[in-house]
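hey
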């Protein structure tokens, strides 16, 4: 018979995840091989755009679900953080280059997804959505803001993902070097 609407949404989302996974794999390989961003940019642009199209379609087909929007935010977050690392610059400098207009478009789509999620009438965001939105500040390099938002979220939720994200944020603030993490932050980590 004909596939159900739910089946169609699932297939579209899985297709988007396939593009996202390929994009993330390409980024990971580029980091490991010390490849410059320009060398992988065309393939990253194609895969990220395809993933975002699929996630956008999934969000349109199921306006109640957070998944299409969250996947868009997570995809763009990974893309922008790794693009700045591979290009050896910050986000502002990266977006200033007219060749990277597609990155600005991706950034706008993620911000739009955040806005849609935050402006839903009468619905509380899931812990996963709150964590994803809090971690979005990493894109702009606002580690202290991420830590603050995740601390508040961890107090009200017993979600292991939130605790892991807070630990990661605390380590990121101290360049992922345990020896440089102050005692107060180490105590926070052990209490999580």
């Amino acid at each position: 018979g004909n596939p159900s609407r739910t089946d169609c949404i699932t297939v579209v989302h899985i297709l988007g995840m396939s593009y996202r996974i390929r994009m993330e794999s390409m980024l990971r390989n580029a980091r490991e091989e010390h490849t410059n961003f320009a060398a992988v940019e065309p393939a990253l642009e194609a895969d990220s755009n395809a993933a975002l199209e699929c996630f956008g379609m999934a969000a349109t087909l199921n306006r109640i679900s957070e998944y299409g929007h969250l996947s868009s935010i997570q995809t763009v977050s990974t893309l922008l953080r790794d693009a700045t690392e591979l290009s050896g610059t910050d986000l502002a400098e990266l977006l200033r280059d007219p060749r990277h207009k597609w990155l600005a478009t991706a950034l706008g789509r993620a911000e739009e997804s955040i806005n849609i999620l935050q402006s839903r009438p009468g619905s509380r965001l899931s812990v996963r959505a709150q964590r994803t939105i809090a971690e979005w500040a990493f894109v702009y390099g606002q580690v202290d803001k991420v830590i603050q938002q995740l601390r508040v979220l961890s107090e009200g939720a017993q979600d292991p993902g939130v605790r892991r994200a807070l630990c990661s944020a605390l380590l990121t603030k101290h360049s992922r070097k345990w020896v440089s993490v102050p005692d107060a932050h180490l105590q926070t980590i052990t209490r999580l």
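The two ends are 49 Å apart (CA to CA). Residues 84 and 90 are 5 Å apart (CA to CA).
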